[in-house]
Amino acid sequence: MKVRIPTPLRSYTHQQSVVDAQGTTMSDLLDDLDRRFPGIRFRMVDEQGRLRQHMKLWIGQDAVTDLSTPLSGSDEVTIMQALSGG
């Protein structure tokens, strides 16, 4: 399935804005992304396996917070990262 990558994480994906990944759950998808692009999962998921507060995941138009959310092969996933500054 297609995964849209936010600009701050594109250094992991060789500047690609859209990549392919596989998984039956959102957690599986993030694991697959990490196999393809080492280190990217840690930027999204903390040591306890929870989505980091500044990260947002979407399946189509639906926001996802539970990493056990099931996926189908036709889903399109968007990863968003909140940015802050002063």
Secondary-structure blueprint:
Layout: E1 2-4, E2 18-20, H1 26-36, H2 40-44, E3 55-59, E4 62-64, E5 76-81
Parallel strand pairs: 1-5
Antiparallel strand pairs: 1-2, 3-4, 3-5
Number of helices: 2
Name the average pLDDT. Answer: 94
- Helix-strand pattern, N to C? EEHHEEE
Indicate the CATH architecture.
Roll
**CATH H-level superfamily:** Beta-grasp domain
- CATH secondary-structure class: Alpha Beta
Helix- and strand-based class? alpha+beta
Radius of gyration: 12 Å
Strand content: 15-25%
Detailed description of the structure:
The chain is an alpha+beta fold and 86 residues long. Strands 2-1-5-3-4 form a five-stranded mixed beta sheet, with no helix packed on it. It has a single domain, classed as Beta-grasp domain (Ubiquitin-like (UB roll)), CATH 3.10.20. Helix content is 19%, strand content 23%. The chain has two helices and five strands; from the N terminus they run E-E-H-H-E-E-E.
